[in-house]
Design brief:
nine-stranded antiparallel beta sheet, 29% strand, 348 residues, eight-stranded mixed beta sheet, extended, alpha+beta
């Protein structure tokens, strides 16, 4: 039978050796982690190849550049060099509308919520037109009943309330008017990032909209809605500072009103595949060689490139895939896009 001293001594030994064993295990795990970390630095484990599950992709249909002037480009980023991109990026499938026998009736219910309650007229194909009988600007809406793309037109350029700017809201309140309009149509989709919403100010001159020089000369406010980032990359569009979803708000006899709109929205599915992409250097070479879409040209022949990043290009017409582009930004609002997926995976 153990004495008290022997029991105490045994307990101390058990505690001591238990601490030694636990400490050794912890040290071993730390060493393994350090070894794994160093191995990844010295000889990193290669990533599996891109999935390229969609096969060869159609080329991005970038518009023709607005300027044919030959430009000289210089890298003038914060670091002084071009960024290092990952070797691949996700390509997403675009949602396609399903035929619906009740599409016309459902669309009629939607537009009626926004005041377009007249009898429907077929315009062309799947596009139908409704009129707002209460509108002093003779407001009309044309909707593709399957894709739900729409545009609003009106005779606002001759409307005295719009011209005089009575009840024209400030830009922030104009955003609310535009949001409420889309919400009434059930078109304020969850993938819109309302924090990114932008406004542009216009005056009416010679029966046309021209950029306003100040808020005091503004008669019409354009509100542009942008989609949320995809895979942490921004969605970019064919026009600088504009999206494919824009609502124009003007004054009215009693309250502000939506006088014009162009709504082209494409849903992005979660189905995706990875594709190899060009390096920033390769994309910059294409820019210098004229193989880029310059959507906001520079007034100068020499262009300093200040920022280079990846984005997803959303066209203003139906597309099957959401694909990445390399975005170049420079002085004086210069912006250009270069298709990012390597040429071997693009159908030529």
């Amino acid at each position: 039978m153990l004495t008290l001293n022997q029991a105490t001594s045994l307990t101390k030994n058990v505690v001591k050796w238990s601490a030694v064993i636990v400490g050794s295990i912890i040290l071993l795990l730390i060493l393994i982690r350090i070894g794994t970390f160093l191995k990844e630095i010295i000889a990193p484990t290669p990533l599996p190849p891109p999935t390229v599950s969609f096969g060869k992709l159609p080329p991005i249909e970038l518009p023709t550049s607005s300027s044919a002037q030959q430009l000289n480009y210089f890298i003038d980023t914060v670091t002084g060099v071009l960024p290092k991109f990952p070797d691949r990026a996700e390509v997403f499938r675009i949602e396609k509308p399903s035929p619906d026998l009740l599409a016309l009736a459902k669309t009629g219910e939607k537009v009626a919520q926004a005041g377009f309650s007249s009898s429907v007229i077929r315009v062309l194909g799947n596009t139908y037109q409704w009129t707002d009988p209460q509108s002093s600007t003779l407001r009309k809406i044309n909707v593709d009943i399957f894709t739900l793309q729409f545009n609003v037109s009106s005779a606002f350029l001759e409307n005295q309330a719009v011209i005089s700017g009575v009840n024209l809201p400030d830009p922030n309140k104009a955003k609310t008017v535009a949001q409420n309009f889309l919400s009434s149509l059930s078109f304020l989709y969850d993938d819109l990032d309302l924090e990114k919403t932008k406004t542009n100010l216009f005056s009416i001159k010679d029966s046309a909209l021209v950029p306003a020089t100040s808020i005091s000369t503004t008669q019409v406010i354009e509100i542009d809605f942008f989609q949320k980032d995809i895979d942490k990359l921004p969605v970019v569009y064919p026009k600088a500072n504009n999206s494919t979803i824009n609502i124009f708000v003007g004054g009215g006899e009693n309250q502000p009103q939506v006088i014009k709109a162009d709504f082209f929205h494409q849903g992005i599915l979660s189905e995706s595949a990875t594709y190899p992409i060009k390096t920033a250097s390769d994309a910059f070479l294409e820019l210098k060689n004229g193989n880029a879409y310059i959507l906001s040209p520079s007034n100068n022949k020499d262009v300093s490139i200040r920022n280079v990043y990846l984005g997803y290009y959303m066209e203003n017409k139906e597309q099957n895939f959401l694909m990445p582009v390399v975005v170049f930004e420079g002085d004086n609002g210069f912006i250009a896009y270069v298709s990012a997926v390597t040429d071997e995976w693009i159908n030529k």
